[in-house]
Specification:
322 residues, alpha+beta, Jelly Rolls, Arc Repressor Mutant, subunit A, 3 domains, 5-stranded antiparallel sheet, 4-stranded antiparallel sheet, 45% helix, extended
Length: 322
């Protein structure tokens, strides 16, 4: 059973009072919220919130790992300091095979229930702060979704590490430190890649000096690629259709000009893909040749040292017969 205590609202998340006046902020920061201490292991957050009659909770410290599985493909989401977890009774999507949540380290939940609602009744702008915090969390999740669509796994890894560093990183003189323990499997779940592919991409990032593995996490040295202007086909505006009986439309064959334009677009896309693959192959070939040259030079140096040692080694003759 999780242990409970209390914590000041301001200590749980100072940004919740960002929209309050200075006077109201000094009063609201004294509000105390129930605090639940979770031990490492599986946890049903909704059950914890129901047991304490709370609609949500802040995470002042620790980390939760939410796992969803769509068929054979797992997906992960990190919930850490500054994030919000909410009570939900919405039925799970039929596309999701399973979902679970686990506290990876001792984790604290500041419960949002009666105490917070009483404070929000006195200072309504607390709800604006809560909504803003929730929107920031949704924005990070949407960015993670876009990162999963990047074609190169090394770009995905570097981008998701910088994304996490925006929330939980620390800028130092050596670089940006991301003090989060992430296994290769966990990184794969965050970016939608297999563990062996993640291992190869991490080796490439480490070899070129983009990241450095540390005992307490990662040191990020190379920033992610700068966003480029969008190019390509315009996206049509999605819209909801009325729930009337469908009317079958007569299919109109595309005109000759439209067919030519479509074929030209396809040809251009194939050409760009071939050029990109050719450039990547050239870069990898150059790196491999440089590595082979280094290994050849090292072997020659070792052979030279062995030969010198063999020549300088004193010869020990047999003792003369008495």
């Amino acid at each position: 059973m999780p242990s409970t205590s209390s914590i000041r609202l301001f200590d749980a998340d100072p940004d919740l009072t960002r929209f309050l006046s200075a006077e109201d902020r000094s009063l609201a920061r004294q509000v105390r919220l129930p605090l639940v201490e979770l031990k490492p292991g599986d946890v049903d957050v909704s059950d914890v919130l129901r047991a304490h009659r709370s609609f949500a909770a802040l995470v002042p410290g620790g980390m939760l790992l939410q796992s969803l599985r769509l068929g054979e493909h797992p997906g992960l989401r990190l919930i850490g300091p500054g994030d919000i977890v909410s009570l939900t009774d919405t039925p799970r999507s039929m596309l999701v095979l399973s979902t679970s949540c686990r506290a990876t380290v001792p984790t604290r939940l500041a419960l949002l229930g009666r105490e917070f609602l009483i404070a929000a009744r006195r200072w309504p702008w607390l709800m604006a702060g809560l909504h803003s915090r929730s929107a920031e969390q949704s924005e990070r999740l949407a960015t993670q979704l876009m990162i999963c669509q990047l074609p190169r796994v090394d770009d995905r890894l570097l981008s998701v590490m910088w994304l996490l560093a925006e929330s939980w990183g620390q800028v130092t003189a050596s670089g940006t430190v991301l003090a989060v323990e992430l296994t290769h499997s966990a990184l794969g779940g965050l970016i939608g890649a297999r563990r062996p592919t993640v291992t190869l991409a991490l080796s490439e990032l480490t070899e070129r000096g983009a990241i450095i593995r540390q005992s307490d996490g990662w040191l990020l040295l190379e920033p992610p690629k700068a966003p480029q202007p969008a190019a390509g086909e315009a996206i049509g505006d999605p819209r909801l259709m009325s729930a009337t009986a469908p009317v079958w439309k007569e299919e109109v064959a595309p005109s000759l000009d439209e067919q030519i334009a479509a074929e030209a677009a396809t040809h251009e896309e194939v050409r760009l893909t071939v050029e990109r693959l050719r450039a990547e192959h050239g870069e990898r070939t150059q790196r491999m040749r440089a590595r082979l040259d280094e290994l050849s030079a090292t072997r020659q140096q070792i052979a030279s040292v062995r030969e010198r040692i063999r020549k300088e080694r004193p010869r020990v003759g047999r003792p003369a017969p008495s």
